[in-house]
Fold these 3 entries.
Entry 1:
Amino acid sequence: MQKTEPKKNWIITSSAFHRLLNWLDEGENSDGQNYLEMRQRLVAYFDRKNCPTPDEYADETLNRVARRLEEAGTIESESPAKYCYIVARFVFLEYLRGTNKNLVPLDDILEQPQVRQLAATELSEEKEVKEKMLNCLEHCTGKLEPASREIIISYYHGAERVKIENRRALAEKLGVSTNALSIRACRIRDKLEICVAKCAAET
Amino acid sequence: MSKQEYSNQAITEYLLGSLPEAETEHFDELSFTNNEFAEALKSAEKDLVDSYVQGELAGRTLEKFKSHYLSSTARRQKVEFAKAFLLFTEQNIIETKTENSAAQRARPKQIFLKFFSALNIFANSRPVLKWSFAVAALAFMFTAGWLWFANIRLGQQPANESIVKNDARLEREQNNQNRPQIPPTVDTENGKEIAKVTEERERHEQRLKRKQAPNQQRNIERKELRVSKQPLSASPSKINTAFFILLPPVRSNNSIPNLSIPARVRYVAMRLQLESDDYLGYRVALVNPSGDKELWRSGKLETKISAESKALNVRFPAKLLKSQIYSLVVSGIKINGVDEIISNYSFRAVVK
């Protein structure tokens, strides 16, 4: 596989973007869902690697894949998911090479006055943020279907063994496996998290 | 790929950056190429964050969570969201239970209304059905009336029996009267003797009748009771919940109450009496003997106030308990949302 190099002047066009969508769909039209899922996995990957701006690195990865598709017409050596992972790994290694030159000891960072001030501000705003989040949760769960609302509240209620028992009972009540319930609850929670983030930013 | 190739523990280690490099890269690739793994990873991350928020992490896992997981802004935002979200679910789980119980209470009313709405179908049905219903109603009324009269007739029977008895007594008296009477003049002493004995006999008879009358009444009442007091169900008794009341702990008193818990019980319910009610809400946690592991935690609770005391009601699965000492740690929720431990109810569970 050719090593993908950053090409700063290359801008993704509409046709390149559609080619990327079709390639990720692998013949079955997903209305862009596969693209969104892949982007989400890329963001999560770069976040796990402690990259400061995971969204940007995820977009950079997808841009490079789109450019490669535009140049080669198709990529058949790997599956779309594996190819995206390989490109992401290269992007991450480049990030590591770039950051090694600019490493600053953590103690030096913490002693900077603006960092101390930021910490103090965060503590005082924490209560306000929590209040805002609760209001947004009320608003966002109100937009859910009653069944989804019940799932999301019941699934995450309780602690340790009580939580496990609750989930088992809920899965039985809904007539699904615990795995299927876990996936459903996860997706509802992700949706809520996005809605709350948007709501909190607007208020 | 089967789930056996990765465990929940391995996923947690991966999220905390504790896996060796080769395994980390393997999981990195799986997070893209294996949909099942990707979903399990998302779910495990949420559970890990929730465990941290609920104070369930300890030791090395907690250290790694703080040092590694919280080093990212995006992940710290997930923790903030989880804090608000879990508080929200606790507040709303009580509302959900209240709505369910209200729905259950409304069910008999709905059944009642449905019954009467079903009667409307006779208004719009064919004439044959209408007449059939009318005939059935008449037959029902006739049967009910006949049974009512029969009941009245049966009720009058004791009065008739007493009339028959009176007749029999009258007959006896007449027979007595028809007996040849010993003229007193023939043998005065014997006559007096006889009169005395007769008088005594009559007195005894009356006393006996007076004694028998209430017994007869009691027998009738017992029969009526036996008829009316049929057992409602023949099902064997089942013990679902064991109930206990725990008083506020006293500092000077070190004794720990022993609670006998039958092995077949499903739940243990406790009423924890409080010395005061100063908080917006409360939470109760069941803690193991060493106090470092929380076995069960309640949602947000409110006190039940009666004329003599304030108390919290909790219920948890009986299978959490073995024969040893436990503590129920009560925390009060302050206005700023922070929990403050206010009391510790220790007890010794004796599981039989």
Entry 2:
Amino acid sequence: MDNKLNIKQAERKTLALSFADGLWDILFGGMLVLIGLSDTFQKAGWPVWMSYMPWLVYTVIGIAVFTLLKQRLVTPRSGMVKISLVRSKQRLTIFIVAIALQLITLVVFLLGSSGSLKSALSDTPVWLVDALFGLGVLVFFGVMAYATASNRFFLYGLFMGLALPLGVILREQGQAVTTHPQIAAGILIALIGGVVFVKFLQKYPLPAGEAQDGRI
Amino acid sequence: MAEFNEDLHPLADLDQVIHSQARLMVLTYLYVVDQADYTFLQNLTGLTWGNLATHINKLEEAGYVDVEKKFVGKKPHSMLKMTKAGREAFKAYKQQMQSVLNNLPD
């Protein structure tokens, strides 16, 4: 039995169990890989909008598969919980603000990549845009780690934090494709998510469940 | 005659329903969430199913926990929620214990 009855620790353990399955990691890692590959597709002559289609299709299918796996495999093992919005208000607010900022940063990054913001940002050094995006990513993962009480998100922030400047260095060196570090980070995150998922299935076997008459 | 520490009186008034390691653990986790099911609590507390059920029954009898029984598909599924009385009792217990521990001699 766990003898630590600190309320804050109880809160952290509750949140951590909700994100212990690794499915978010697999979903996000795959998204990173496909966003990185969009650069390769564009260099191969694909129109910008088409280069992001694999990412969009993966995201839509991925979320559907994610939801199904959560319902069929994860929740029966981890159990069901409704997190208190009142108690988690601070975490939730920070999480929502971080998501909103990250979405804004992503939109700016995508518009910048496609050249739509070229005239607006013509005087802005490219490395500055990348640095700001990288900072946004680091903040986002730090917030995810705090909000979900899952320390591995700090590691993902580190992967992304290394991938983005490496991409800038590759660009400065005149490399054709500069998103290989990002793709590598995505693969690492998805792989870690896969390992976490397998360990989760091993650690939390299916319980016998409640008897038909309501007894457990 | 030994000096009697009046600050230790709260020990005598401790809520015996809550003053059990297992039930205290269950209430601690229910305190930080809105609702949870048996599986979630079992994963967090490490109690056996039978043990958990026994303690949940005691808490339900005391009016500290509500057990909402329903069916998910064809399987029975119960969600547990701390009642208002349970939250008040838990807060009072926490304050009593803190007071007792703070006033313990070195």
Entry 3:
Amino acid sequence: MPPTVRAAPDRLPRRGRFRVPSQWPSWAVVLLLVALWKLATSARLLDPAIVSTPGDVAAAALAALGSSEIYLDTGITFLAVVIGLAAGVAAGVPLGIVMALSPAVRWSSEWLLLVTNSLPRFALAPLIIIVLGLGVTSKGTVAFLASVIPITLLLMNGVRDIPVDIHRVARSFRLSKGQVLTKIVLPASLPHLLTGTQLGFSRALASVIVAEMYNPHSGLGRWIAIGQVSLDASHLVFASVLVAGIGAAFVHGFNTVGRRLTPWHA
Amino acid sequence: MARVKVRRGVLGRPGFYQVCGLVLLIAAWALIARYRLIRPTFVPPPDAVWRAAIRAARSGVLASDLLTTLREMLAALALAFGAGFPLGVALGVMRPVKRAVEPLLGLFLTAPLVAFVSVSIIWFGFGTPSVVALGFAAGVVNIIVSTSLAVETIDAVLLRMSRVYCRSPLARLWKVILPASLPTVATGVRFAAGRVVVGVVVGEMFGSSAGLGARLVETANFFDIPSFYVAVVTLAISAFALTSVVAAIEARTRWAAARTA
């Protein structure tokens, strides 16, 4: 006898009733952690001078978000990251394509890029800041160095992954090299460019924040440095959580915008 | 482009071009330094860097820094795996808990954990503990996420078979779930190794006086640029070595999984 299939019951939309947002479990977890934090500091299990209490951190947060400094600094950091990232894309795309299409260039330079990719490029920040000074130039350079290598490598792999059959079709249509470049290589490499840009963005953001922490002058890293030297642990905890949160929001926003703008993800 | 010209002899081998690339790099560096095409502060002549490297190696500073950094990286990675793997398996098995925690994990995955370096210093003290803590924090989230993903995406047929053949949930876990999830877990460990490197370097730069990261900051502050480059190159090579070793282990797990399939 064939097995009977029970149709799924229709779910009526709940009108007029409070719909619990689907992410409430994670909010509940966060609230639970904050409550535990409060209890631990009240019971002196954790030293409030080191860990700070939720109330103090919230007060520091309100004070900071009220003034305009934090928004200015966020903008400065974001600007440096975007400038560096744009330069990284401008340099990485031609370099990646050349590396993909020419074995000689690839073999002579890929090892260098792979080794440099393992090194966090903000390690060069002390030297760059010494030579280029404070300000957008040095931060943009750090962001550029951080983003150009992932973009180049991913783009190179992307172009190399174009199926050989497509190249054969190009040959049978007698496309010139320039036409192959514009009609085949560039469009096929767009998804990899997007992935590389997303990766480069998060790396560039972390690098710029580190550069700002190293020599605090402006930007989000300055807030962490300020929090470190202030006698109140609440400033430090607030600044760290804020910078991490803004960073996560930036990366998430960038990824979402990237996905929306690219038709193949639809 | 579809037809790659295959050259005979040494010109066809990648190794030749890699060596050529290295030689060209050093030659270009020497030329730039000699004719001061870029600021001399940025580009010291290669022999100055070489002399600084010999100095650092002879005095033992290089060896001790390298050992410190490698120890911290390995410790952070081991701790991240030791804590992250069980948590990831637990999350992969208990789906409702994972759904609750998933946005938090995503947040930690994308957040620049470098922001927590000062917090780490204050909580764990200046020196190695804070460095390892930061590296641990950087890597553990990656391992948790990839392990839970690995456990979730085990072949459903395999799971059903294991319910038939295994006598207890523990046996299922040990004999089926863990080996089947190994390749994806290994990939996650590889990504986590990269993040651990970032965390350890940041921790050393700001929160330690030993290790290659601390040496970077110190040599830059003293304007000893050749020694700075020695530290940078050593750091790059050791980070690359660590990720290569982890990648090799990951490749081995794929062979092992393919053999048992």
